[in-house]
């Protein structure tokens, strides 16, 4: 996993293209139509995704079909997994703080009712 992959996915239209390609290979015109972008914009985004290795192109007759490449996405998943346990631990700590605040709020409200 490299920073170029993250930078490529950081652009919203490129991320939308990756999301579209999750369902399978698509021709450029289909991607263009679904995103409402000009052909040149889609081509630029696909070039960036191809340059970082996230997609590959397969010519079929007069069309160019793009599909996701599994390896870079597996590497991204593996990289993110290293941080997942940190996030889960922090969320658990946050849950504990929220519960403590709720208990304090209830205790304070009960004290005022007396």
From TrEMBL:
SMART domains: HTH_ARSR (SM00418). The keyword Transcription regulation applies. Pfam families: HTH_5 (PF01022). Coiled coil: none annotated. PROSITE patterns: HTH_ARSR_2. Residues 1-88 form the HTH arsR-type domain. Keywords: DNA-binding, Transcription, Transcription regulation. InterPro entries: ArsR-like_HTH, HTH_ArsR_DNA-bd_dom, HTH_MetalResp_TranReg, WH-like_DNA-bd_sf, WH_DNA-bd_sf. One of its GO terms (molecular function) is DNA-binding transcription factor activity. This is Transcriptional regulator, ArsR family. It comes from Bradyrhizobium erythrophlei.
């Amino acid at each position: 996993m490299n920073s170029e992959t993250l930078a490529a996915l950081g652009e919203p239209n490129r991320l939308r293209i990756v999301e579209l390609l999750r369902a399978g290979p698509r021709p450029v015109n289909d991607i263009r139509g679904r995103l409402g972008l000009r052909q040149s914009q889609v081509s630029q985004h696909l070039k960036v995704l191809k340059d970082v290795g996230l997609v590959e192109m397969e010519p079929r007759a007069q069309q160019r079909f793009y599909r996701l490449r599994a390896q870079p996405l597996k590497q991204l998943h593996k990289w993110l997994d290293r941080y997942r346990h940190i996030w889960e631990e922090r969320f658990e700590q946050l849950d504990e703080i929220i519960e403590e605040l709720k208990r304090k709020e209830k205790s304070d409200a009960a004290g005022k009712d007396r």
